[in-house]
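Quick board copy: two proteins, each given as sequence then tokens.
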Amino acid sequence: MTATDAALVLFSGGQDSTTCLAWALERYGRVETIGFDYGQRHAIELQVRPQLLAQMRSHKPEWAERLGDDHMIDLGLISQLSHTAMTEDIEIVMQENGLPNTFVPGRNLMFMMTAATLAYRRGLNVLVGGMCETDFSGYPDCRDDTMKALQVALNLGMATRLKLETPLMWLDKAQTWTLAHQLGGQGLVDLIRAGTHTCYLGERGALHDWGYGCGACPACELRARGYQQFAAGKGTL
């Protein structure tokens, strides 16, 4: 644990951000969370956040001591600017530029900029996000180069020494499940299975072995395949 560092975790209520929150709680003496309401189609993730945070606090006594305030930010401007399958009820398809129409241009950039502004005010010097370019849909704002460039720009623009941490950047989904198990045991894996939400369509009917979801959207396919590999013992770090 790095007692001198304090972290702000981008916490959506999904699998990746919950794993990142556990990662941060193991490392930093003070951790806060930030979530964004941007008019997302799968807004059910915002509904599961409060209970998830309560469950994270009860999972380990030291996590309860380190986990501080949660901040919910209205970024509805994103949905006004975007025409995507994440913000409108349209079919998920591939676009001519090779990206699925679930890509929301500028979303992660705005998330990080907003988080950095809040971190500045709250005296937090680490931002933690679940961006990954191993198992992902090709989103350019999830790439390591983007995050490194953004860290430089934010620190230049605010005269700070913020550090952007992306613990899942080089992990596939099976390894993300494995990391969760290492951080919080089977209890955290079960919490992520039943408590988080990642499905793009917001489907929360039947509980599958890998969690809730439609089972067909890109997010569900990645999550399900990763869990199956993890369960088979193939998610080694």
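And the next:
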Amino acid sequence: MMQTMTKLRPLLLLPLMALAACNGAAQTGGGPAVESPSQRTETAALPRVQSGPLTPEGLKGLSAAQVEDALGTPGFRRRDPPAEIWQYRVKSCTLDLFLYVETAGRMVAHYAVRSPVGSPVSDRACLDEVLNAKTERPVS
């Protein structure tokens, strides 16, 4: 079963990426569940993100709790089974994370970076801006 899901995952990502490209447009009834940013994920029994620079490729395989530790609470969260999409928007780009349930819980399987105006933005520059935005947010 897991091998089948692993093989189907790339096919499932295409429509999810198209949905994420909508930039979280308002939904009407009957759509997938959307959570508010104030809803926290469960605490995983996995180790937290280790110190050192986080790379875009390093996002893959992180648990939901590790992502929140590293990047903060996403501005937008959408459940679209079997995936959950987390979105981090900053001034120059949007970082979309696609999480799937694995044996250890929800894990990042894929990420996508895009610019709001279609101009080029590097994965590294976008992640750096998301990380900087987290450190600039006031903690209450």
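Board note added afterward: Confidence is low (pLDDT under 50) at residues 10-31, 35-50.
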